[in-house]
Amino acid sequence: MRWSVALLLLFTACSVPSLEELQGERPLACDAQHACGAGQVCALGACQESPCGSASPSVAYLDADGDGFAAVNAPSRVFCGAVPAGYATALGDCDDTRAEAYPGAPERCNGLDDNCDGQMETGFVTRVWYLDHDRDSFGRNGPGTEACDPPSELHVEVDGDCNDERADIHPNAVEACNGVDDNCDGRADELFTEGPGALGTACTEFCNGTYACNDAQTGTVCVGTPPTPLYADADSDGEGEKDSAPAGELCPDAPMPPMMAANTLDCDDADPGTNTQAMEVCDGLDNDCDGQVDEEMSCGSLKRVVDPVLAWGNWRTVAVHPSGYPVWVAGLGGRLAVKMDATSAFVSHGGDTATRCGPAGNLLDWHAAWISPNNSYVFIVGEDGHIGEHNGGSCSSFQFDLPGKNDYFSSVVGVGSPAQVFAVSTLGHLYEFTGAAQRHDSTGRYWGLHANGNDALYAVGSTGESSPLTPLVNLYARSITWGTPAAHNLQGIAGYNGGLRAVWAADSTHIYAVGDGGLVVKGSGQSRDWERVLPQAGPVLNYVSVAAPPGTMNAYVIGNEGNAGRLQRLTPHGWAKAPAFTPSAPSVPLRDIAMTSSSNFWVVGDDGNVYHFPEP
Q1: How many CB atoms lie within 10 A of CB 339?
Q2: Rounded mean pLDDT of 455-477?
Q3: Given Cys at both, which of 244, 265, 434, 578 links 569, Cβ 3.0 to 4.6 Å?
């Protein structure tokens, strides 16, 4: 037969052709149950003459993926001897393009039939997949999807995400203070609910404050209604001092504390008559706090009076009638002058004039003056016990024999009608000029005298004549016929060395005395205890004179910073802003002040310095 010759030729070459190449006559069918006869091989289901003779031939099939199994329809060859690579003797490969797919291969979870049993993932344990929409590696809670492979790229095998719309919320997140369960443990802000500053606990930085999460969400901060800052309102006029720092706080619905205000509008917090609601008056002050003084009033200012009679005088005292005129000034070297009304000039009544007080050509040093409100006569006192009463045209004067060699009258005042005149001397004596002069002795030295009504006199000075000096206040009363004085107690003067130089009784509740080294004491007619007033901030002044406008509780104080005069104003609320000198404060010592009101006062000093408010 022709195909037998062909098989013999292939055998000789050790290469077996396929059965398709050897077909001629149709061979007998064969399979596992129908074996071929001796010297035959079964190839492609047909018995064929073995090309290998007595040797056992091998029928092999093309194994494209080299996994040892060929596809059922793979081309076959007969090999005499070993089967070469790329051929397999076993059939059944269901995917000859994948070496991982063959009968008996381990089944993989890949959506394919790896063991060629006609099923995918047969016997493989499937996994549960959870949707991870926010891509934070944690899927949302729920039943999940059972599958070998993730249904999509948004599925993961780990669940527990309590908010799958936010990538910053998942079980591994750090809990922030934000009212959210960031780490999905079923609690919100659990790190911030205990200890100091715990969420929801009370705090004091704000009104009705409680602790809440801060903006950074890293901790807590006090939140609530911001309190209104309060400012000191020393004069209780409803306005705090301009440009001052807060002195307190006020929560809504809380009552305003005393002496506090919710604004800084007041340009002078020691004066209740000065605030933005006040009416401007002629007093040299900015009453309505608009930055202007006495605007639209044309009342003048505090400035020096230019008059030849006043030039070069070392003026020691000034006295003003309650009506405003006459005004008397007196000083060293016999200088004495009067201004009878607003339109007249000053007239000299010095020691070299015919209308003088004292001997002809005298150079007496006058130290104090007082004008009787009854007849406008002036009483002047001074050197070596000299005293004079001048009516503007002539003077009645005499000399009282003072016991001290250098003693002189330092202050004078009158009470009642007709006037009962009193003077004090530098040796601490009170002299009464009612008919025959009387002297009431005491210890110490007197520099100032003033009346509180018609029945009380306050004399001030110091004990002793040499340092250290202790300031004193003595009260003389009509009830004991101006006899032995009652000493008053001065509080807060421990360690002080100096004397009081002037006193003024504004009324029975406000009596001020001033003196050396910034000393100011305040008393009343109801108590012998006087309290010290703290001096104004700044350089220490030596105070020499004080006066109070009638009907007020204020005091205008004259003092000297070295040889430079200063004017200060004291109210029950503290040191207020005094009227300013125009154009500036004098550079010489000032000695005395007299006033009828805050709208009319006079100040005198050395080197012809006489000042008046208001002066055109």
Answers
A1: 23
A2: 92
A3: 578
538 vs 578: CA distance, rounded Å? 15
Please name the amino acid found at residue 45: G
φ, ψ for residue 542, nearest 5 deg? -95, 105
Task: Give the span between the Cα atoms of 410 and 381, in whole angstroms.
Answer: 7
Does the pLDDT value for residue 436 go beyond 80? no
Taking a C-beta distance cutoff of 8 angstroms, is the pair 193, 201 a contact? no
Determine the average pLDDT of the residues in 85-108. 91
The single-letter code of the amino acid at 504 is W
DSSP code for 2: H
Q: Whole-angstrom Cα distance, residue 426 to residue 446?
A: 5
Q: Are 447 and 499 in contact (CB under 8 A)?
A: yes
Provide the b/e sequence for 396-421 (b: ≥16 CB within 10 Å). ebeebebeeeebbbbbbbbbeeebbb
pLDDT at 23 over 70: no
For 255, counting Cβ atoms within 10 Å of its Cβ (0-12 exposed, 13-18 middle, 19+ buried), the class is exposed
Rounded-to-integer distance, Cα 567 and Cα 536, Å: 12
Longest dimension (CA), the chain: 190
* Nearest alpha carbon to residue 221 among 250, 190, 192: 192
DSSP string, 179-198: SS-TT-SS-SSGGGSSSTT-
Of the chain, the percentage scoring pLDDT greater than 70 comes to 92
Binned at pLDDT 50, 70 and 90, residue 38 comes out as low
Q: Interior CA angle at 468 toward 465 and 471, to 5°?
A: 75
Residue-wise pLDDT for 179-214, tens only, equals 999 999 999 999 999 999 999 999 999 999 999 999
What is residue 477's three-state secondary structure? strand
Helix (H, G, I), strand (E, B) or coil at 478: helix
Going by their DSSP bridges, the two strands 301-304 and 581-582 should be labelled as parallel
pLDDT at 52: 78
Question: Which amino acid would we find at residue 253?
Answer: D
| CA atoms in the 13 A half-sphere facing the CB of 590 | 31
Q: Which amino acid is at 601?
A: F
The residues near 194 (Cβ < 8 Å, ≥ 6 apart) are none
Contacts of residue 100, defined as CB under 8 A and 6 or more positions apart, other chains included, come to 67, 108, 114
pLDDT for 288-300, tens place per residue? 999 999 998 889 9
Say if CB 443 and CB 428 are below 8 A apart: yes
Yes or no: say if 9 and 26 are a contact pair by the CB < 8 Å rule. Answer: no
Q: Residue 219 and residue 177: Cα distance in Å, rounded?
A: 6
Token look-up 């911001």 returns 226
Sheet of 420-425: strands edge to edge? 409-415, 420-425, 430-434, 436-440
User: Average of pLDDT values for 388-396?
Assistant: 97
- Alpha-carbon dihedral 566, 319, 511, 507, rounded to 10 degrees: -130
Mean pLDDT in residue range 147-171: 93
More confident residue, 126 or 397: 397
Spatial separation of the C-alpha atoms in residues 616 and 613, rounded to whole Å: 9
Q: 117: phi > 0 → left, psi -120 to 50 → alpha, else beta; which?
A: alpha
Place of tokens 């309505």: 288
**Residue count (the chain):** 616
